[in-house]
Amino acid sequence: MGTSLNSLIAGKRTSNPEVSATSPTAVMVNGNTIFTVVGDIQVLNLVSECITGNDATASTIQYSVTPTVGSVGTISGASASLASVAAGAVVTLVGDAFATAPIVSASGPALSQTARGIYVPSGAIKIVIGVGSTTGTWRHYLRYFPLEDGAYVI
Known about the structure:
The chain is mainly beta.
């Protein structure tokens, strides 16, 4: 059965634990939907992992949300260049301001979001790729908290 907001505030157990989703591995192209959001969620972490290395194209990545109702909005600034990034590198959403660039970590380990989450309504989480598509393949990870019963990400 559903859990009300009042019971969450009161600190009671909820049927909505933190969960995660993983995207398929693909070349990053401007406007790609990396996650479809059904119901309202709170994004706790968003990480992109390089699976096969990029060439010298100076691509950048920025994350955006396209809600079912409302206007498109970016949830990050553009990252540093992804040119020649090797497999194992990661990009992490900082999440402290919509203009803050994600962090590119060439070695793999990376810091996570500093804020306690970003509200995302039903719709899509997309990527904005500047300069040109990546040549390497990437996979995206999302850790989130459903804000309503039945909310999920695919």
